[in-house]
Structures are given as structure tokens and as C-alpha cells.
Amino acid sequence: MTQPTPIRRAPGPRLLDTALTLAAHSVPVLPLRAGKVPFGNCPACARNACGGRPNMKSAGPCQCPAPCHAWAAATTDPGILASLPWASAWRRAAAVAYHPGGAGVTVVDLDDAAAVAWARATLPTTLTVPTTRGEHWIYQGAMRSVNAVRPGVDIKSLMAYARWLGNGTGDTAPLPDAVRALAVTEPSPARRAPQTLTVPLRGGQGECRHRTPAYLDRGIAMAAQRISEARSAVHVTVYRTFLAVLSTHGRCGCLTDAHVTRLFTAAQAKGETVRHCTDAWTNALTTLGL
Asked: How far apart are CA 98 and CA 22, in angstroms?
């Protein structure tokens, strides 16, 4: 990825200048609020009326008038970046972010010294950008984004955003198989979230009816179908479906990793991230007191 030199000016205009410079180098950008988080939904998408974003699986840009859908709002169009709906966001922005996958690159986000040491011993050298606690290693080539592929290591590329931290050192190397393999060996979120479900069968009366294929498998299939058929309010549909599954099957310990993985897979196919799925599952557990 070509490393443009940002123009230095006052905070608001300086960030917009940086964004326009990046956009001119075919890097899709968006503003971030303090805390490295995107801006909230625009009025047209209030209360998730749009279902998360139209065409969530695509590479963007978002069709909404304001930058409210994280990576999907990233754009290289200078007219959009400098438009009136975006002006307020740039005035309040704390940083510029970009969509790595849209720029054709992958960021290996190393969050601490231990992760950096692992990368130096394991991965090919490439363009390196210092962060507050670690480093971004940037490779040429896009892939799916995955969080927590190992301690302190996230992969940010397609359907993700990364903070623009300025120029780095070194040349951008081709995306290596070692990085792609991290996504393949990612720990399944279903192995984390459902662990709280392993409770004894009620009353000690042996195998519960939920374990029979005719009951449990049909219920999971119907839940996955409900998620897959959602046309709007995807976040809400996923949460309510998880809540319904757990209210029926969550107290007897009959759910397996395979069942939960099936639900997570259906949600991710609708554009939900691993983190969204895990949060929705955890919130459903909390609501039900599990």
C-alpha cells in the first residue's frame, strides 16, 4: 500500500486533509470518534431501522447520508468525504480510519509486546506501523477479518476498519499463508460462549427430551432459518433468536458446540461479526440468568 504524506493543519481540517490524501491513493476512509469507535447511526438508520446496513456483505460504501456504519461507510469519493452530512463528523472526529480490505491489504494487529515478539519470530517482515501498545503489520492482499486468532493478535481486512496511524517502515510484503492459516485455526466462538450451559439435568431424571434429534435439531434448524430469512433489523433478530433457543434449551446442558456454531454461522452469513454474535449470545445468557 502506498504511504501518502498527510497534510498538517488544525485538528478538524487536518483529519479531513488526511482522509482526502488517503482517498486519492485508493484507500477507503472514514472518521472515528474518541475511543476508536465509529459514529452512531444517522437518522435514517436510528434504532437499527435499516437492519445494520443495506448490502452488509458488500465492500461498501454505505448508501446512508452520514458515516454511520463503520467499515461500510469508508469511501474514496472526495465529494462524499467533504459533503455537508459528513462535516459534523469530521469536526468531532478524533482519528481517521480506513477499510483495509477495500484498500487490498490485511492488517495484523499486534496488541502488546508479546504479540510483537511472536510476529517477529513467525511472520515475514513487511510494512510495520507502531501503535500505542504494539504494532500493525500490513500485508498486500485481502482476507476475512478475525479477532483473537491468538493472544493479542487480530486480523483486520475485509468488513473491518483500522485506525490510520501514519507512515510505517519497510515494504509491504505479499499476504503470507501463515497469516491466512491464522483465520483457519481461529478458536470457535461457540467454544467460548456456550461453556456456561453445562449444568446438570433438572431433577436428575436422566436424558431430557431436548437431546432427541426430532426436537433439538428441528429447533436449531428453525432458528438458523429465522436468522437467514431476516430482511431488516438483523442485530435484533439474531439476539431474539439466541434468546429463544436458550430459553428452551439453555438449562439442561443439551446444546453442543456444533449447535451453537450453526447459529453463529447463520448470523455471520447475514453480516454479523464474531464479536456481534458472541455479545448477543452473552446478553441472552445474562437476560435468562444463565
From this structure: 9
